[in-house]
Amino acid sequence: MTKRKFSLAGDTAFETVKTILAILIALAITFCVLALTCEDPVSSFITMLTGPLTKMRYFGNVLESMVPLVFSGLACSLLFRTGLFNLGIEGIYYIGGVICSYIACQAFGNSFTHPLVAILVPALISGLLMLIPGYLKAKFNANELVTSLMLNSIYLGVGLWFIKTYLRATDYSSTASPLFEKSATLPYIIPGTRVTIGIVLAVVAVLLIYIMLFKTRLGYQIRMTGLNPKFARYSGMNAMSLFLLVHFISGFLGGVGTSVELLSIYSRFSWVALPGLGFNGALMAMMARNNPIGVLVVAFGISYLQIGAEIMSRSTTVPVEVISIVTATLVLLISAQYFLRGWREKKLLKEGLLHV
Amino acid sequence: MINHTQKPIQTQLELSVKGGIPLEDSILRLENITKVYSNGVVANKDISVDFRKGEIHSIVGENGAGKSTLMKILFGIEQPSAGKLYYRGEERAFHNSLEAIDAGIGMVHQHFMLIPSFTVAQSIVLGMEPRKGKLFLNKKAAVEKTRTIAEKYNFDIDVTKKISELSVGAKQKVEILKTLYRNAEVIILDEPTSVLTPQETEGLFEELEKFRKLGHTILFISHKLGEVKQISDRITIMRNGESCGTFENAEISMEELTARIIGRDLISSYDEKKKPWPEPTHVLSVEGLSLSHKGQAVLSDISLAVKRGEIFGIAGVQGNGQDELIRAIAGLSEHTAGKIVLNGHDISRMTIKKRRETGLAYVPEDRMSDGTAGEASLGDNIISTYFDRPALNGKLFMRGRKINAEARRLIQEYSIKAESPAQKIQSLSGGNIQKVVVAREQNTNPICMLAEQPTHGIDIGSAEFIHLRLIEMRNEGAGLLLVSADLDEVMSLSDRLIVMYDGKIAAYFPSTKELSRSELGYYMLGVKQQTPEEIGGALHD
Amino acid sequence: MSEFFRVIFSEEFLSTVVRVLVPLLFASMSAYIASLAGMPNIAVEGIMLMSALFAVLGSYWTQSAWLGLLIAIGAGLAMAVILMLCTIKMGTNPILVGIALNTFSSSFTVFLLYLFTQNKGTSASLPSVVLPIVHVPIIEKIPVLRAIFSGQYTITYICILSMILLAVLVYKTPLGMRMKAAGLDERAAKTAGINVNRVRIIAVLISGLLAALGGAYMTTGYLSIFTKNMIAGRGWIGIAAQAMGGTSMLGVAITTFVFSLFQAITNVFSLYDLPSELINIIPYIGVLLGIILFSVSTYRRSKKG
Predict the structure, then answer these.
(1) How many angstroms separate the CA atoms of C169 and C179, rounded?
(2) What pTM did the predictor assign?
(3) Which domains, from first to last, does chain A contain?
(4) Which subunits sit against C, judged by 3+ Cβ pairs under 8 A?
(5) CATH T-level assignment (fold) for domain B271-359+446-540
(6) C285 in contact with A, Cβ within 8 Å
C-alpha cells in the first residue's frame, strides 16, 4: 500500500479547514455588526462567546435548547442522505406535538409509563406519516419537496383545529391545551438547571443512529443507496424498502424530538404556528453534512451561540436575533461545495494527489 | 476473396497537391489533426481529410477508432492538440460550438437535444429567434421560416406540433432542420440510423440525397457498412485514432472496406493459460430472449448457452443490443419474452439479489454509474454485493475489522494502488477502480460471471491483469459471458463467440482458433448474416 | 346561510379578494419565474418579510413612501443576489440556500426592528409613510369593476402592471423562451447556444423583485406597520400555487386566485364559528391531491410506453 501523505487538502482535513474558516468568517461578520450597533462591541462579543460558561444555569440552557435541534437534525440528515429534499419534519413536529399533548393531558400510568407512551405513540404515528411523501416519491416520483411542504401546512391546520376543538384549555387566555399531567413531564437531572432527561435521550439517539448507519448492515445499505441508488440496485439491495425505512425512522425521530421538547420545557401545548424546529433541523443537517455525531456537535454549537447571544442581549441593547447572521453565514459557507474549491484543487495538483 | 494487392487510393489532399482535383471544391479540410487527452490517450493521430461541397462523406470505424473525437473537434467541443483546420480555404479554430455553427457546421447528435413541450418551430429557432423590434419574439416569422425550410428540403413535418407528439424519425428531422435554420453547409450526422426504423432510414437517405444536390456536405458517421455503401460518395476509414485513407465508394468493395476497418493485426493469445474443464454443463442458458422498448425491438430472439470452464464472447459494435442483453440477464431490466436459466434455476423473474445468490456476478459497463458509489470508500465498495455473507458480517452488525482485512487482502491480491480501504474510491485511477469491481465480483465465487467492456478506458497493465483473472475464473470452472467492442480482447479471451448486430445474433463461431478479424468484421458491420441453423449452435452446441 | 351568500356576492367581498390576492400573486409569480428558469426560489417568504420591513424603514428614513418602496426593492434584490451567488458561484443547492435565507430573514428582521424601534413586535412607533389608495376616475362609478380596479392600494396597480409585463416577458420575448428552455432541459438549452447561467440570474433577480413588491405591499397599504413574521405563510402559498401551475403562468394565476378566494372566505367564515384552520388548509390539500394525480398519471403513461 502506498504511504499516505498528510495534506491540508485531503478529504477530512479539508473539511475541517473549511469549517474553521467558515466559523471565523461568521464570527468576524458578527463582530462587525456588533461594532456598528452597540456601545461596547468588544465586551459584548466576549459575553456572547463566553456567557454560557459563566453560570451552571446558562450552560443548562444550552443543553435544553439543543435537544429538539438534535432530534430534528438527525431526522433531516437521514432524509437528506437519500439525496432528496423532504422538509416534512416541520409538520411532524407540530402534529406529533399535538398527539403527545393529548396523551400528556390524560391521567394515565405513572411517571415512567406516562412519558414513555406520550413519546412512543407520537413517534410511531410520525414515522407512518413520513411514509406518505416517501411512498409517493418512490412509487410515482412525486416531488418530495412540494408534498412535504404541503403536508406541513395541512398538519398545522389539522393539529390546530384539534387543539381548538378537543384540547382547549378553558382557563387560559390564548389558544393552548390544558396543563400536562405531572406524571407526563420529564424529570430534571441536573440540579440548578432545567435540563431534563431529554438531553440523555438526544445523545442516546445520536449514538444509536451513528451505530446504525456505520456499524450495521442496514445502515450500510442505507448509506450506499443514498450515495448511488443505481449501484445499490446493481448490488442487489432493495432500494425501495430501504428508502421507505429511512423515512419511517426519520419520522419516528421527529416524533420523539417534539415529544421530548414538549414534556421537558413546556407545561402545555401552545404552538399556534409551525415552531420552526423542523427547518432548523435542516440547517443542522446541512452543516453537519448529514453525519449524526456532526449533528450533535453542530446543535451544541448553535445552541451555545444562541444562549450566548441571549445572555449578551440582556446586558446590551443588541437583540438576541443577531445570532441569525452567524447561523446564516455558517450554513451558506459550510454547505457550499465550491467554497475554497479553487484553493483545494491547486494544492492537490501541486502535491500530485489529484488524478487527472 | 479480398484483393490484398490493391493499394489505397491516395487521399484527396495528396491528389489535390499533385494537381488532381481543385482545392476550391473542398469546403472543410483537416491537416495533420492530432488530439492527445490530458490522461495520455491519443484519440486522433495526424489525420488529414478533406470534405467537398455537395458530397455525402462517410466516416467509418470501430468503437474507439477516434471518430467521435474528430467530430467534436470539427464542432468546437474539443480543440486539437496539433494540426490545422481550414473552412472554405481559411484557417479556422473553433473554440466552442457557437463558432462552429456560425461558420456553417451543424451537428445532429445521436441523443436528441429536444424539449418535449416545445413546438417544432420553437425548437428550431431556440437560441436564434426571429424578432419584432429587438425585444419581442416574432412567432409568425418563426413558423413561416421553419415551414419554408422544411418545404425547401421536402420534410413533411407540421411545424406547429409539439416535440412530444412526434415519432423518432420526425424528431431527427427537427434536429436536422435546426442545423439548416442556422445555414449549415456541412451537416454532421452521428450514427443517425441507430434509432430509426427501416422505413425511416430510407426516408432519411432520400433527404440526404436532396441535401447533396443542393450543395450541402454531409458527414455520415456509422458502423453499418450496408448503409454506408448505399449512400456515400466517399468513405474515410479510421482505426486506432488514425485515418486509413479516403476512398471513392465506387472504387472500394465491401470486403476491402471491412478489412481496412478491422485491420489485420496479430492478436496475442491467452491459449497457453487456458485449461480445459472436464464436465461442460450449462451454467447459463438464454432462450428466445426478446426485449422491446416503446414499440421498437431492442433484442430479438436471442438464444445462447454458456458452459462451465469457458468464456463465451459477444462481439459487436457498441449499441447493437449487447448491453441490453447483459442487463436483462443481470436483472436490471425486464425482458418481454424468453427464458433465462442459471445453474438449473429459472431466473427469468428473480430479483437481482436472488440471481446473485444463485451464483451470478456482473462487471458492468459503466463502473462509475453502476459499478461503484464514488463517494464511498474502497472498503464499502468492495463488499457491496456480498456484505450479508455470514463469513463477513453478523446478522445485524457489520464486522469492521473483518471487512478491513478482507479489503486489504483483495488490495494485495489484485495489486490495487490505493492508500487504504478507507480511501474514497473515486480518487483511484480508472484501472484500479475496475480492479476493485472485478475483485469484488470474483470474490463471490460465482458460477457465471457477466463481464461488459471489462477493460474499457483503463491502462494496459490493469487490463492484462484483469484478463488473467477472467481466465483464472474460467479455469476454475466458472462460465463467463464476455461482451466487448474490442475485437482483440474478445477474440483472445473467448472460447466460443457470437456477433451481435441490430439486436440480433448475426453469427456464431464454435471456436476462435481459426477466426479472422475481417470475418468477424463482416458480421459486426452488418455485411453478412448467418443462417438460423448456424446461429442455433450458440444454444445447442 | 343566506347571510353568508349575501356577503360573498357583494362588492366589498370582491374588493377584499383583490386585496388578499395581491401579495399572494406576487409570491406565486416570484416562485414561478425562478422555477421556470430552473432555479427554484424557496426564499419567497423570507424576501417578502425583509422587504416589508425595509419598506417601513426606508419610508421612515426618507419620509417618502416611494423612496421607501425603492429601498424595499433593493433589499429584496439583495436577498436574490445572495441566493444567486451561493447557487451559481458556490455550488450550493438552491433549496438549502432558500431554507437558510428564510430562517435568516425571520430572525434578522426582528433584529433590525429592535435596532430601530426598541420593539421586537411591531414598528408602530415609527412614523413610516404609506402609499396612497388610488381612486380611478370613471371606473370608480362602474359597479363591480370599481371594486376591482378602483379604491385599491397603489401597489395593487403596480401588481397589475407587473403581471402584464411578466406575461409579455415569458410568452412574447426570446428571453422568456430561453428561460423556459433552461428550466426544462439545461443540456438542450446549452447546445442551442443559450447562456444558461445568465438567463437564470435574470430570472432570480426578477423573482426577488416580485417578492419584494409583495412584501412592500404588506406594509405600505394593506397594513401600515411591520409586525414580526407578518407574511404569515403567504410566501409558502405562493410556492404551492407555483407547484400546481408548473410552467403555465395562467395556471399559477388561477390557482393563486382560488387560494385568495379561500383566504377571503376564511375571513368571512371567522364570523360564523366554522373552523378557519381547516378551511385554510383546503388550498394545500388541493395542491397535494393535484401533485399526486399528476404523478400517478405520468407514472401510468410511462408504463404503457
Answers:
(1) 10
(2) 0.84
(3) 44-317 (1.10.3470)
(4) A, B
(5) Rossmann fold (3.40.50)
(6) yes
